[in-house]
Amino acid sequence: MKPPASIHAEPLTAAAFAPFGDVIEGPRQPGRADDLARVLAGGDGRPMVSVLRAEAGAELPLTVARMERHPLGSQAFVPIGGGRFFVVVAPAGEFEPAAIRAFVANGRQGINYKPGTWHHGFFAEKAGAEFLIVERHGPGENCDFVDLAPTIEITA
Fold it and tell me: Total structural domains in the chain?
């Protein structure tokens, strides 16, 4: 199936993102929210926690030329101190460009990709924004890439 030339980025919601993973969002009132995402580290892996500081900011429209996936574990991104970001995904399995979807996280939401979910590298809205990453660390090949030709544009 031919991929679309452009895809509209939609607001990130738990229901819309469910095929790809979890939306991580804290409580709207004082209190604690537990067990917000399934962190999976497959095989001999273990969860690894890192911090990413965005080198550059991104804005719509975005050009998507490459997608990646991590077949052995999940991968989560959560803003530290707030920070909108853009999420570009496709279902796990054989890569299908026509199935790509795009979301805009509102700055209070994080995401957790299911193992094998195709996604674009990280697009933070602001340079310098920081994000907590929880992902698999361990033996085995855990990153596959596919290049898109033609590229796809993500629009507002």
Answer: 1
